[in-house]
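can u do me a favor
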């Protein structure tokens, strides 16, 4: 009952499955990267997708139950984030998620309970109840700023530091189709390009920015931008987790070996509102045909069906699913316990913020 209507009774459509398979073979380098994935890696990505979806479903339920007022969800866009993060070397690389890339936090090692705590603003949440933009430098996650596009120059700077120190890491951040229209994006992207730093920018085109459709804020094709900035551009099918994974592997290899920044263009679709409270508006702004087109391309359904066809035993899929369901249920319980016992004291409002420190 918390799924978009297009996902209820979802079944793989033969034409869509053929398209999914074709995407995986159209580029020999990507096909070879995918063929090297072990069953464990394949199942880890499956678990990552489910974790992200169930994280969002829990938040949606909390909104309906009055636990929280609203939530920013990524339903339908999970494969961009999960494929990107799994394509990195998570021991050394760093990521900068937007609020719609919450799954990146889970995959980098921030617990789902902490993600939920942040929504509940508890004293034991990562920001101690101050901000639901989650980050953790020990996990290699830079928290997003509210101003969209702002991480673009920050990531150019981080990549410059890596380059100057001669380190092997790369950094990756996501930029929404709308956020690419900010000055910060253009300044940061150009800076990364001219300094030739190991940064990957994923332009996550979910076809809408708040209530403005893609064609209302952009005239030409995104892919032309790589040439304009003088960097490598790789397109990928954003709802195909294996394609987003393979594109990231290639991008990381290029950036890691001194080829400068890479833009990954990921086409996907927001299967709901900007926030939970404008889902009805989204259905009026975006055509029914678009919802139907993308609804047939549920990233999780398509991937599950791929795994079944490619010999992953159903029991292994069920086991992975059961483990994630259990993990989310435990995380929800722990976070709600924090809400009952660990809400921040009012005096702590000025701790850990610049104004509070300056006033001493
Ligand atoms: C610089 C700036 N301008 C406006 C906003 C208000 N705002 C928040 S999200 C958003 C839309 C972003 O769209 P997009 O970048 O496509 O990301 P999506 O929400 O689709 O994931 C806007 C306009 C903001 N946060 N920052
Ligand atoms: Mg968008």
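np, heres the sequence
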């Amino acid at each position: 009952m918390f799924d978009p209507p297009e996902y209820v009774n979802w079944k793989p459509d033969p034409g869509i499955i053929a398209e999914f398979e074709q995407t995986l073979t159209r580029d020999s380098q990507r096909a070879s990267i995918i063929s090297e994935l072990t069953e464990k890696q394949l199942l880890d990505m499956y678990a990552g997708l489910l974790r992200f979806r169930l994280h969002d479903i829990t938040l949606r339920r909390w909104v309906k139950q009055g636990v929280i007022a609203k939530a920013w969800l990524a339903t339908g866009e999970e494969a961009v984030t999960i494929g990107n993060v799994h394509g990195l070397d998570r021991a050394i690389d760093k990521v900068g998620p937007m609020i719609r890339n919450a799954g990146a936090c889970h995959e980098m090692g921030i617990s789902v309970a902490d993600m939920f705590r942040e929504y509940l603003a508890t004293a034991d949440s990562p920001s101690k109840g101050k901000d639901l933009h989650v980050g953790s430098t020990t996990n290699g996650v830079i928290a997003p700023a509210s101003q969209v596009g702002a991480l673009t120059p920050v990531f150019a700077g981080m990549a410059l530091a890596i380059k100057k120190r001669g380190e092997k890491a790369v950094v990756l951040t996501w930029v929404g189709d709308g956020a690419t229209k900010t000055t910060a994006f253009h300044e940061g992207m150009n800076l990364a390009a001219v300094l030739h730093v190991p940064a990957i920018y994923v332009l996550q085109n979910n076809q809408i920015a708040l209530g403005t459709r893609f064609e209302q804020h952009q005239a030409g094709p995104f892919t032309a931008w790589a040439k304009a900035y003088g960097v490598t551009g790789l397109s990928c099918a954003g709802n195909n987790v294996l394609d987003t994974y393979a594109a990231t592997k290639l991008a990381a290899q290029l950036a890691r070996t001194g080829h400068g920044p890479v833009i990954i263009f990921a086409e996907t679709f927001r299967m709901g509102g900007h926030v939970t409270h404008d889902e009805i508006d989204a259905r009026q702004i975006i055509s029914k045909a678009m919802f139907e087109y993308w609804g047939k391309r549920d990233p999780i359904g398509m991937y599950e069906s791929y795994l079944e066809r490619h010999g992953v035993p159903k029991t292994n899929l069920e086991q992975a699913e059961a483990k994630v369901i259990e993990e989310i249920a435990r995380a929800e319980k722990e976070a709600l316990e924090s809400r009952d016992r660990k809400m921040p004291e009012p005096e702590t409002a000025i701790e850990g913020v610049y104004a509070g420190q300056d006033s001493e």
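The beta strands are 94-96, 171-176, 199-205, 208-209, 212-213, 232-237, 262-267. hope that helps!!
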